[in-house]
Amino acid sequence: MSIPRDIREFLENYPDNVDDPEASANFEFYSNVRRCRPDNRLIDEIHQQWTGDFDKLEYKHGYIQWLFPIQEYGMNYESQPLQRHEIRAMKADPAVVDRIITSYKMMLDFYGMRLISVDSGLLDRSLPPRNFACRYNHLARSSHNNLRISRILKCLSEFDLEHLSMGFLLHVLWEQSDGHGLDTPGIRSSMDRWWTNCLRDDEKRRRVGEFIQKVRSGENGYVFTRSMYREELESGATGSGIAPSTNVMDTEWGQQACHIERSAVTEVEEKSDATGPGP
Predict the structure, then answer these.
(1) How far is CA 108 from its chain centroid?
(2) Are the CB atoms for 247 and 180 separated by under 8 Å?
(3) DSSP-assigned letters across all residues of 159-228
(4) In whole angstroms, what is the distance from residue 144 CA to residue 146 CA?
(5) What's the CA gap between 35 and 238, in Å, rounded?
(6) What is the pTM of this model?
(7) DSSP label at 250?
(8) In 3-state terms, what secondary structure has residue 113?
């Protein structure tokens, strides 16, 4: 499977980019002194006011470039591509790194997930009053979020947080293999071709790719279990298991949970496999 052009540039750390020392909008935004455009919010205000507001996070599209800056232009031309000097300054500021992780947690919550360990990257499903089944269903049918996830993973890599990316990828793989959620053609396509390659660390990318290949092939009944997921993040060990045959969204509980939480969501017209340059 070929690697998309934007992913190749990412993996090569954008060799044609030239740092602009006068451009510091991302560092200033994450220092909580610049308001993003067009939403006119400080980063701390977004974290405080938008967490859990799923309609706002779904329908607004200009914030994602500010929360997860990367060295590429996105669809919001009021944002600024991440500069190399900004990366150095932001990585050196613990408050900025904490805010990046908070942004990640906010989007995980939107997707029906929660961060269990900042150190290992371990994720789990959201707990009540959140309905993870409904959030999973929303992610499966709102393909523009696949593009957002590509941007999120690239951003985490820029700030030496690839262990969080690995935690996300293997959580999704566990759901697809043993948890029986997020297993749609669109998500699988984005994951296999885009998301998995948003890891610059060769060993992490290789490990994730191997697990995905085993799950996709299903050879010898291979299942990526929850214990294997936890062990891989914590110590690199693996295990084995057998998968049942029920998808969470096919259960009565899953359908009821989704009915309770679901607001009216207009389908966003995106390419069917949600591929191409990120938002």
Answers:
(1) 7
(2) yes
(3) TT-HHHHHHHHHHHHHIIIII--S--HHHHHHHHHTGGG----HHHHHHHHHHHHHHHHTGGG----HHH
(4) 5
(5) 45
(6) 0.86
(7) G
(8) strand
pLDDT tens column, 83-98: 999 999 999 999 999 9
pLDDT per residue over 128-160, tens digit each?
Answer: 999 999 999 999 999 999 999 999 999 999 999
Distance, CA of 36 to CA of 43 (rounded, Å)? 8
- In whole angstroms, give the CA distance from residue 98 to residue 84: 19
User: Would you call 179 exposed, middle or buried from its count of C-beta atoms within 10 A (0-12, 13-18, 19+)?
Assistant: buried
Structure-block tokens of residue 277: 């340059």
Element (H, E) at 125: strand 123-125
The distance from CA 76 to its chain's CA centroid, rounded to whole angstroms, is 19
Exposed / middle / buried, residue 89 (Cβ in 10 Å: 0-12, 13-18, 19+): middle
